[in-house]
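Proteins fold reproducibly. Next comes an illustrative record:
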Amino acid sequence: MAEAEEQETGSLEESTDESEEEESEEEPKLKYERLSNGVTEILQKDAASCMTVHDKFLALGTHYGKVYLLDVQGNITQKFDISPVKINQISLDESGEHMGVCSEDGKVQVFGLYSGEEFHETFDCPIKIIAVHPHFVRSSCKQFVTGGKKLLLFERSWMSRWKSSVLHEGEGNIRSVKWRGHLIAWANNMGVKIFDIASKQRITNVPRDDISLRPDMYPCSLCWQDNVTLIIGWGTSVKICSVKERHASEMRDLPSRYVEIVSQFETEFYISGLAPLCDQLVVLSYVKEVSEKTEREYCARPRLDIIQPLSETCEEISSDALTVRGFQENECRDYHLEYSEGESLFYIVSPRDVVVAKERDQDDHIDWLLEKKKYEEALMAAEISQKNIKRHKILDIGLAYINHLVEKGEYDIAARKCQKILGKNAALWEYEVYKFKEIGQLKAISPYLPRGDPVLKPLIYEMILHEFLESDYEGFATLIREWPGDLYNNSVIVQAVRDHLKKDSQNRTLLKTLAELYTYDKNYGNALEIYLTLRHKDVFQLIHKHNLFSSIKDKIVLLMDFDSEKAVDMLLDNEDKISITKVVEELEDRPELQHVYLHKLFKRDHHKGQRYHEKQISLYAEFDRPNLLPFLRDSIHCPLEKALEICQQRNFVEETVYLLSRMGNSRSALKMIMEELHDVDKAIEFAKEQDDGELWEDLILYSIDKPPFITGLLNNIGTHVDPILLIHRIKEGMEIPNLRDSLVKILQDYNLQILLREGCKKILVADSLSLLKKMHRTQMKGILVDEENICESCLSPILPSDTAKPFSAVVFHCRHMFHKECLPMTSMNSPVQFCNICSAKHRGPGSAMLEMKK
């Protein structure tokens, strides 16, 4: 049976409960592997009975009384023959330099692994437990405890002699002990005790709950979570105890410390071992199940659970069933759980197997995600932790993800992921493109191919273009538009398109694409020809961009037929390249297009096309009469006689009226309005524009026998002609529509005129008064006379050189100055004297004199 079991899979992950792994989507917290190498050799001939763990090495005891020191890979480094019978327990101090061993035959040994100091003693009963002081390496801490029927404390005295003292007895065999700091915890048949080595006091007794279980078959499991927290597992019960300091006021005869149970709960299975994991617990459980066939109990795989303790219950974080060798024959007492605090390593020890459990790292997390085919999450995890992962590469995970998507048929997503995963690796891009070609999905990857950095081989792009050309013309055209022309061999693709056009010569998509390819190839002539054939909007952009005006001189009609608005704008913007004369000649056979061109030209500049204004009269009359009258008004180059002739031939009344008035024949124009249009309002408007009394007379004479016309005149004539002239001519008894309203309006208009005149008069008087006052203030101001001023008559200085002599000067308000003797004598009829200079021009304010005498 042993040989058969050894042929099982070496990896314990594969040997966990497969049905549970398949059903659960939760990631395990731990990973497992067997401790092999030397351990395998040992357990082939012997069986493990106990084990202890140090950060640097392991110590394994066997049923044949051997103790092996192992490295963390399980290789044997040292071997000790302690006893011919079972090793019950091994204890190491924190330094790993001293080891204590006890065996079933009562032997106890404590010795230094690297020194000669030793303790040997053989008792008359089996010694089940041993624990050396955590700091045994110190001379002040040379202490250890052993347990059989009683718990003994051994201490080395100052003379290097060992003395023993009984800490406890009388409650059955001591079966478990753990020493942490100054506290020793042990378990016997009745419960768990804690002893304070510093105060030499026992501080608590925690009784066991299920006394029906045999303590030798279901031993107690103890572990210290920290220096003051003890975890007790016994049967199916777990208690977490906290050692606390007692308040001085409560001491009396009590110990200085006491224990409080902070959490207590039951588990589903029997506990074989405990270990702390941060604020959680790792529990090794012995499992018994009932066979459905025989209804008998049998030993199932042991379980390693991670639980979160609560005050009265617990929450299961993870649970793994382990297939250890010989689990069918093991009892609860055969399993042990040891742990390394520094590295969070957990060792599951059974007689024929040692399994190591360790926390899963990021590589293990990625392994699990890949196993569950959660590739996207695996890729994200690898990117986040790329500095910490050792066994995985982001690129390998990405490639596996792409393959997975392809296998699922999600080709578009796979192609999209290539952008991120393949990055700038041209070789991988080309490999993936060929892979997509093999499965017939080149179209899926085409939108995501790199187009700049990196650039793939031209053959790759040509292969995809040929694929589209065979099955999807629109997709082919899209790629040609989006891809730069230097990615592929343009001539090869041009030839392929031409071959397809032989089968479908009128396919607009292919023709347009061919034009774009010609453009990339700078074959603008062929591209322009195709665009014109297709009447494509890009033709104008192509002409502008590549200056193809010399190529379109004979294609002006085609351009105008396609889009006359854009064509005319382009031609007018580039007159220096295609002259107006050339355009008009090309459009000679298409007068409607000729008109569009000349009309736009006239709008831009009234003089540039003056030689064609005579022609435009006929074109406007034929194709655009609404713009004929504005043209006639704005043009100063069109022959009026020719225009009048055309308008009279076509009976264009409004245009004829305008031409007649412009040629000075206002009376004929007015007559035409009255006789042809019968529009009194227009006639009145025309008469107002001309402002000619004879026209008003003609209008009155024509309207005097037409009541509606009289109404119109009465309503509008008041401000231009005296309405009395019209009213006197109205025949008595003539019925005139709305006469009363018209007369009222005339009176209102008259009153309004009177009011306006009065208002204007008031404003004028006020302004005159204001200006008069201003002139008076100005004239009252003094005028400076100095040596620079001269007499305007004799041109000598106005002031004499000797100012002591008397002199007379005349200064006018216009600032002209004269010696008094230089002025002519005033007449008796007009005593006011005026400036000779200003009065010669005109007489006005400011020319009167201001006489200055001294």
Q: What stands out?
A: The mean pLDDT is 82. The chain is about 40% helix and 25% strand. The radius of gyration is 61 Å. Residues 433 and 442 are 7 Å apart (CA to CA).
